[in-house]
Amino acid sequence: LDADAVVADLYRSGGAGAAAVARLFGPAVLGPDGAVDRAALAGLVLAKPAERRLLEDSIHPLVRREVGAWLARRELGEPPPAVAVVEAALLVETGTHHAYHRLVVVRSPVALRRERALAAGWPPARFERVLEAQAGDQERERVADYLLDNSGDRQALTRAVEELWVELMEDASCLDSGRPLPVRRAASETRNVKGERRGGEA
Questions:
Q1: Under DSSP, is residue 187 helix (H, G, I), strand (E, B) or coil?
Q2: pTM value?
Q3: 106 three-state secondary structure
C-alpha cells in the first residue's frame, strides 16, 4: 500500500483530508474542484515547521486509520498474505514504524536523490525543504531492520528486492509458527541488501 496514494484519496473533493486542510488553512489551498491543491499546500507548510506539524497532526491519524483498515482487510483474506507492505515517507519521524513487524529503509546518496527528483520535475527548493523536514539518514538507518540500497540501476534494485523478499518471507514464517522474530540488528550490524548476488543466497 502506498501511503501517498492514501493521502491523495483523502485530499479529493469531499474527502476527510480536504476538509481538515480547509479548516486549518482556509479555502485558498483548495482547487476549483474542492480537492487539495498539493503544490499550494506544500508551498505553505514546507518552510514553516509549525504549520507542517499542524497538518501532520490532522492528516496522519486519518492515514493511519486507512492503513489499519487495509491491513485488517488483508487479514481477512482466504488465505491472508504472508507479507503486507506499507510504503510511507515519515514512518520514523512519526514513530509509526513501531506498529510494524519490520522496517525497511531504502537508501541512496543525497546527491543522487536530488538528481532523480529534479529529473522528475521537482523544483530544487521543494527538494531541499522536503529533505529538511525528514529525519537524517543515520537516524532512519539506526532503527531499520533492513537497508535496501537504491544507488544502482533498476535491475540492481530488482535483485535487491528479490533478496529482501526472501528474508521477509522467513520473518513471516517465524510469526506464523509462533516463533519470535530475530532481534532487530543495530544499523552497524544490519545487512545491507544490495543488488549483487552473494555466496549462499538465491
A1: coil
A2: 0.84
A3: strand
